[in-house]
């Protein structure tokens, strides 16, 4: 399921169905965890986790039966993970993230990485001197390409930041110029200038009257 919203429909074999599905209680992603636990048991034991001679008996074992255990050949940590996945209550089952963080998964994932490292080293030891030299050159080229890519990304970020700063400064300068220009055009006339203008206009009136 791609969602943890409750659903009510079901189809398919009952061997991997969770108790809440068979009880028509609605189900979510925790039912996927149950099915994964059934698959884990089947992979280890080569048989279904809940078996019966007919459909109804299988359903009853899933809903009310005991949780099976893995064969003794498997580690207690793996058995613990499987039993947690097959808890009757959905809320008691772990999430996928919690399963990945379990002791069994962490230890075996590290072992897998270590074995892959040893396998790679073994492959290198089988190479001829010329092949090893070619491999070293390819690795050096990859490292150099990574270094140049990182340098280009840093340079791009630096130029981008500089452009933003310049745009911000230019915008501030233009805003200040516009404000200053508006203030200069709207300056009120001084009283002295008003008096000079009044005297000039009065002189013009007297001249026209004398004529």
UniProtKB/TrEMBL annotation:
It catalyses: L-threonyl-[protein] + ATP = O-phospho-L-threonyl-[protein] + ADP + H(+); L-seryl-[protein] + ATP = O-phospho-L-seryl-[protein] + ADP + H(+). PROSITE patterns: PROTEIN_KINASE_DOM. GO terms for molecular function: ATP binding; protein serine/threonine kinase activity. Residues 180-189 have a biased composition (Polar residues). Residues 1-105 form the Protein kinase domain. Pfam families: Pkinase (PF00069). Residues 138-169 form a coiled coil. Keywords: ATP-binding, Coiled coil, Kinase, Nucleotide-binding, Serine/threonine-protein kinase, Transferase. Its EC number is 2.7.11.1. It is an enzyme of class 2 (transferase). Residues 180-211 are annotated as: Disordered. This is non-specific serine/threonine protein kinase.
């Amino acid at each position: 399921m791609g969602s943890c919203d409750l659903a009510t429909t079901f189809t398919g074999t009952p061997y991997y169905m969770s108790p809440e599905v068979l009880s028509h209680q609605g189900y979510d992603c925790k039912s996927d965890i149950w099915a994964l636990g059934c698959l884990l048991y089947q992979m280890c034991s080569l048989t279904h986790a809940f078996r019966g001679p007919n459909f109804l008996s299988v359903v009853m074992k899933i809903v009310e039966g005991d949780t099976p255990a893995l064969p003794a050949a498997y580690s207690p940590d793996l058995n613990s993970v499987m039993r947690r996945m097959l808890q009757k209550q959905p809320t008691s089952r772990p999430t996928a993230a919690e399963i990945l963080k379990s002791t069994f998964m962490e230890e075996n994932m590290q072992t897998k990485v270590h074995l892959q490292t040893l396998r790679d080293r073994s492959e290198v030891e089988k190479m001829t001197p010329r092949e090893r030299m070619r491999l070293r050159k390819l690795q050096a080229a990859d490292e150099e390409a990574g270094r140049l890519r990182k340098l280009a990304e840093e340079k791009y970020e630096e130029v981008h930041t500089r452009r933003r700063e310049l745009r911000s400064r230019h915008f501030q300068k233009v805003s200040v110029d516009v404000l200053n220009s508006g203030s200069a055009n709207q300056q009120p006339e001084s009283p002295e200038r008003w008096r000079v203008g009044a005297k000039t206009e009065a002189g013009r009136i007297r001249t026209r009257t004398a004529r």
